Amino acid sequence: MEIIKCNSYEEMSKKVGVGIENQFEKNPFSVLGLATGSTPIGLYQYLSNSKVDFSKTFSFNLDEYMDLPFNHPQSYEYFMEENLFAYKQFRKSYFPSEKNYRNYDVMIQRFPIDIQILGIGTNGHIAFNEPGTSKDSLTHVVDLTENTIKDNSRFFDSIEDVPKQAITMGIKSIMRAKKIYLLANGKHKKDILEKSVYGEINSDVPASFLQEHKNTEVLYCE
Ligand code: F6R
């Protein structure tokens, strides 16, 4: 695994978009794992304007805040609707929730993820698997760290409005994806990205587990 440096955010987004288009040309039933946050917005814009057809298949999102209604502008379901699903419909799109999270991994095992999109938190989290999360973790409810609450407060009116808990796909299901793209945008992600890719593999930096994945591409731009 190495860090592929892109010249721009657009280049990074397009590289992954083309990877997804190629996969869907080969197999229109490919299953996608999707991330939210600011990083994949360019990718979703690229896909929204592409001819790629997701209507035959499923998507699984990585995570969702607890206690936010689906129509709250900061819920991840709302985010996906706004950034991708309004333009590209899937046969079905799943989000982990209080109702389904005990079955989420079974569903993913039944419909294995061909391509998983990941961002990375400044503390090394992937999805909402915060530092300390085990490599064998399944979909679970998580107490967000102060660091993550602070990072995500930029999307809310005030830090008090950021939910304190979320439901996240665990590391085990993420690692089962056949291909993973980890995207990072901005100098503030450089240190943690280097630690993840070249540092020790342990749960202090959950993204470091990706070193053990056979088909992960890490893309970075400033
Ligand atoms: C969101 C998710 C998170 C983000 C991460 C980076 O679905 O899984 O792990 O990818 O917090 O967020 P941004 O892209 O906003 O820097």
Short description:
This protein is α/β, with parallel strands linked by helices.
Taking the sheet with the most strands, its summary is:
7 strands, parallel
- Give the neighbour order of strands across the main sheet: 1-10-9-6-2-3-5
Q: Would you count the extended β strands for me?
A: 10
Order of helices and strands: EHEHEEHEHEEHEHEHE
Global structural class = alpha/beta
Q: Any low-confidence stretches, pLDDT <50, length ≥5?
A: none
Mean pLDDT reading: 96
- Specify the overall morphology: globular
What Rg, in angstroms, do the CA atoms define?
16 Å
Distance between the termini: 19 Å
User: What is the tally of helical segments?
Assistant: 7
Proportion of strand residues:
15-25%
Task: Give the distinct bound molecules.
Answer: fructose -6-phosphate
Q: Helix fraction?
A: 25-40%
Q: SSE layout and pairings?
A:
Elements: E1 3-5, H1 9-26, E2 32-34, H2 41-48, E3 58-61, E4 63-65, H3 76-85, E5 92-94, H4 104-110, E6 115-118, E7 140-143, H5 146-152, E8 165-168, H6 171-176, E9 179-185, H7 190-198, E10 216-221
Parallel strand pairs: 1-10, 2-3, 2-6, 3-5, 6-9, 9-10
Antiparallel strand pairs: 4-8, 7-8
Helix pairs in contact: 1-2
Describe the structure.
The protein has 222 residues and is α/β, with parallel strands linked by helices. The protein contains seven helices and ten strands. The chain has helices at 9-26, 41-48, 76-85, 104-110, 146-152, 171-176, 190-198; strands spanning 3-5, 32-34, 58-61, 63-65, 92-94, 115-118, 140-143, 165-168, 179-185, 216-221. The strands form two sheets. Strands 1-10-9-6-2-3-5 form a seven-stranded parallel β-sheet, sandwiched between helices. The longest helix is centred in the first third of the chain and has 18 residues, at 9-26. It is globular and about 40 Å long. The mean pLDDT is 96. It binds fructose -6-phosphate.
